[in-house]
Amino acid sequence: MTIKERFVQLCDVASTTGEALENVVMKLLEQNNFNIQDVCGQGYDGAANMSGRYNGLQSRIQRQNERALYVHCHAHCLNLVLVESAKSNKHFVDFFTVVERLYTFIANSTKRHAAFVDTQKAMNPDQRVLELQRLSDTRWSCREDALKTIRKVLPAALQYLRDLRECDPPDLAAGEAKMLLSSIDFEFLLCLEIATPVFMETSVASKVLQQDDLDLAAAYSVLDGVLKRVVELRRDNQFSQIYNTATTIAEENDISIPTNIPGRQRKVPAKLKYTSKSAREDDAVQTLEEYYRGRTYYTFLDRLRQELERRFYGEGKTRDIVMSLQRLTDPEQWKDIGQGVDTAHSLCEFYGLQGEETNLQTELRVFHASYKCPKRTVKSMLEVFKENNANVIFPTLFKLIKIYATLPVSTAAVERSFSKLKLVKSRLRNQCGQERLSDLLLLAIEKDIGIDKKEVLKIFVEMAPNRRLLL
């Protein structure tokens, strides 16, 4: 038993307001004989006209069907988490600015790009030449490739900038090369070593969240793992390893390591002025490593954790229902008779199953005691239902599991249809009409649906009985 996501139609939208989009959606549902009351979920990005609480499309749909839960695309949410984390302190703001400037400086000039390639070949003749990657403004999880490339080619990039600065006669770009060299300092190396492993792990989660057959239970399992890794990274020994690695790289590339703590030193409070020396020392940062650990490393990870918890585990009616549905897949929640009373009550009340709370609790206890799902996912539970014909024995649970499996995780499949649109609407089909373009997209996207050629031929004959068909 699987959940299928299908492309229905390409719609022309004259206005992007919430009201105009609602009219388009309702017209589409009516044309395809879909009942709005059968909709159990809706997934969009975070744009105001889509996710607005009062006039957004999701709120307008919920006025007609309050059970149509709005789920913000999890891939977009993870992207926003990284965006906000990068703004946590000035060190990371400066770091990503320098990374983008370095790419622009080398990649936007054919001459400089060729010289950078020659520098790589001269320093590492046995290794493959790597290209600097552009930082994506929308897909922050893709910045992992850019950061990994910079870690590998940093010695070659520094050597090229130094050669360009010292060349005789002076190059016109020598001044910009000098500014880049001064920007690639110890703080840059430290931010690079901090951000790269974090972006590598969130990139794995982002790719998982964009899978076609992913359900919300599996998505939250992945997010739980990311959150757990963030907590594990926030340890003194983890930062000590990162700090030592950055120090080693700085020494190997002749980058000076600061000896004084940056910025203005904090003034000793008056109440501590006449106390012992140890009390004054405890109040201030003692070493450079402590400074970067508190101001850079912990600040970045704390903001990352806060954003993950706020965007994926925050408060709200939708979050409460989704978390209640998530508990259906956890056997530990239904071992004892008194467990899960609130969960069963909230779900039955929301989905109009009043009076079924006791039956739902009983079905969950018996189901988890009778069958062992290999994974705590909706897909695994649906396979158990199919193999054992358990939907007859547990009808209430089966209905809720189907709803949970139908709720959208991300809008990646929708965005892939726009990628297909670029292939279908080529230069030769530039004058293609809206209806024909939508039909061509349907054929290109839903290739796994079989087509009865005899029925197609019959339709052609009925449409043009006096025309000769060449097949």
TrEMBL record:
It holds the Pfam family Dimer_Tnp_hAT. Residues 382-448 form the HAT C-terminal dimerisation domain. It comes from the Eukaryota. One of its GO terms (molecular function) is protein dimerization activity. This is HAT C-terminal dimerisation domain-containing protein. The lineage of its organism: Eukaryota, Metazoa, Chordata, Craniata, Vertebrata.
